[in-house]
Amino acid sequence: MKTLRQTGLSDLPRVTQLGSISDMDLDAVTKFSALHAKPDGLILQYGTAGFRTKANCLDHVMYRMGLLAVLRSKQKKSTIGVMVTASHNPEEDNGVKLIDPLGEMLAPSWEEHATHLANAEEQDVQAVLTEICHQEAVTLQQKAMIIIGRDTRPSSEKLSLSVIDGVTALGGQYHDYGLVTTPQLHYLVCCRNTNGQYGKATVEGYYQKLSKAFVNLTKQTFSSGDEYRALKIDCASGIGALKLKEMECYLPRELSLHLFNDGTKGKLNYLCGADFVKSHQKLPVGIEVKPNERCCSFDGDADRIVYYYNDADGHFHLIDGDKIATLISSFLKELLLEVGENLKIGVVQTAYANGSSTQYLEEIMKVLFSKAAEMKIRQLAKEETDEKKRKAAIMLENVIDLINQTVGDAISDMLLVEAILALKGLSVQQWDAIYTDLPNRQLKVTVADRRVIDTTDAERRAVAPIGLQEAIDEVVKKYKFSRAFVRPSGTEDVVRVYAEADSQENADRLATEVSLAVFQLAGGIGERPKPGF
Ligand code: MG
After folding, report:
1. Considering the chain, what percentage of its residues have pLDDT values greater than 90?
2. Over the stretch 77-136, which tens digit does the pLDDT of each residue have?
3. With contact defined as beta carbons under 8 Å apart, do 117 and 180 qualify?
4. What tens digit of pLDDT does each residue of 4-55 get?
5. In whole angstroms, what is the distance from residue 57 CA to residue 41 CA?
6. How many helices (H) and strands (E) does the chain have?
7. In angstroms, what is the span from residue 85 Cα to ligand 1's centroid?
8. Domains, the chain, with CATH or none
C-alpha cells in the first residue's frame, strides 16, 4: 500500500481554508480511505487505552484516527497527539490513542466519535466526518497540528505512516517524533500547547527537565558513590530500554542502571515486563538477580512500573502501585508539613480517606499540581527566610518537575522512587517492610446475615449496606497512616474488620469504631463492640 508521501500527493494544494469540508478535501479523504480499507464486519471500541487489537486489522483505524486528530486539533486550536502502541499486549497486537491538549486522555465525547468513525463503512466515512464537524462546531479554517509517536513493535512504523496519511488527507500538519514512550508523547503535547512553559518540546527537553530535577533532589546524598544505588531494570524488550540508554548520560553516575530485556533480542512483553511480573508474581526471563537486589520492570510503552526483589530464601516480593504510591505520598506529606503554610490544607487531612494509597496519592497530586500551589511552592523556594522551610519548598519544586504531570510514566516514577530511597537511606526490603508492618487490629462482628455486606475494589470498599463505607471513611480520617476495611466471612455470619494506623492504640480504636459501624448498619447481633484489648 502506498502512503500519501510515497504518491507525492501530500504536496497537492489543500483547500481547508474554505468554510466547510470542500468537495476536494473529501475527494482526497475518500481516495486515500480506499487505500486503507476497513476489513468487513470488524467492529472496534475506543476505550481508555484507545483502540487495541491485532496489528493487521488496524490500518484503516490509524488512517481514520489521523483524520479525527485533525478535527480535534482544529476544534481545540491546539496540537493533538497520536500514539501508536499496544502497551503490555503481545507483540502481534497494536493500538492507537489520541492525546488531548494538556497531555491528558481524549475527552469521552470524542471517544465516541472515534468509535463511530473507526466502524463506519467506507461509503459513510465522509458523512461521519461532516457530522462530527457539525456536532463539535469544528472551524475548518483553523490550522491543525498533530504530533505522532510509536513504540518498538514491528508493525508500529507502518501504522504510524497510515496516521500521517489521514492527517495530510485533511490538510493537517504533523511532526513525527518516531520512537518515543507513551508518557514522552504526552509530555510533548503539553509542552507544545503551553508554549514551552511545561518544558522544551523535544525528547532531549524531557531528559533535561527530569534529570535536572533528579540531580537537584539527590545532590546531597549522591556524594559517596554508593554501590547500593544499582538498579536492575527489565525493559519488557520495549521502548523503555532505548529511551533509558539515551537518558543515561544526563543522570548522575552514582545511579547505575542495569538494563535487561533491552530489545536487542527477545519478544516484546513475552515472559517479561511489568504486567507479566505483577500477574505471575515472579521474575521476568532474562534477568539475573542476587538476594535482596532492587529490581523493577517497565511495560511495553513505559507508562507502568513495578518494583520487586528476591529475598535470601529465594522468595519473590512484589512492590506494586499501592506501595509505590505510599512511599511517594508519605514523602510528599512530610515535605508539605515542613513547608507549612496553606499547602497542607486538603492534603494532610484527607490521609487515606479512601483506604487506598493510590487514590490518596492522586488527591495529593491534584493539590500539589494546582497552579496556585505550584506558584506558592516556587515562590517559597526562592524567598522563604526560614532555612528548613525553604529547603522543603525546593525539594517540592524538584518533585513537581520530576513527576510527569500528564500521565503515569515509568521513567519518571522510577527516578522519583530512586530519589526517595536514596534520601531516606532505605533498602528495597526496608521499603517493603515499613508499609506492611503498620500496627493493625483485626476484629469480628457477628451479624444476622453476612450477605448484607457487599464489597468491591479487591474487597477494600463496601458497596452494601448503604452508608457503611461512608461511615468507615469518616472514622479512618481521624487517624494517621490509617486504613480499614470490612469483609464478610465465607462460611459464617461474621464480618471481619481490618484496621491499621500509626500506633497500636490507634489501630485498636479504629477497629472498634469500624466494628461499631458494622454492628449498627449491617445488622449486628449480641453484644455491641466496645473498646478494650
Ligand atoms: Mg502501558
Report:
1. 70
2. 999 999 999 999 999 999 999 999 999 999 999 999 999 999 999 999 999 999 999 999
3. no
4. 444 333 333 333 433 445 555 778 898 899 999 999 889 999 998 899 999 9
5. 11
6. 18, 15
7. 8
8. 4-179 (3.40.120.10), 204-211+220-319 (3.40.120.10), 322-432 (no CATH), 440-521 (3.30.310.50)
279 is catalytic: no
Amino acid at position 68, single letter: L
H or E segment at 407? none
Cβ-based neighbour number of residue 463 at 10 Å: 12
CA–CA separation, 283 vs 272, rounded Å?
8
Determine how many CB atoms are found less than 10 A away from the CB of residue 157. Answer: 14
Q: How much distance in Å is there from the Cα of 188 to the middle of ligand 1? A: 17
Instruction: Please say if the pLDDT value at position 3 is more than 50.
Output: no
- CA of 302 from ligand 1 middle (Å) equals 6
Question: Identity (one letter) of the amino acid at 39?
Answer: P
Q: What is the pTM of this model?
A: 0.80
Closest CA to 112 of 127, 128, 101, 123: 128
pLDDT at 293: 95
**Residue 1 CB-density burial (10 A; 0-12 exposed, 13-18 middle, 19+ buried):** exposed
Q: Helix 203-218 and helix 182-193: axis angle, to 10°?
A: 100
More confident residue, 479 or 145: 145
Q: Which amino acid is at 154?
A: P
Residue of 87, 237, 297, 330 with catalytic role: 87
Q: How remote is the CA of residue 321 from the centroid of ligand 1, in Å?
A: 14
- Cell numbers for 253, please give them: 553516575
pLDDT at residue 481 above 80?
A: no
Residue 477 one-letter amino acid: K
Tell me which DSSP letter residue 250 carries: G
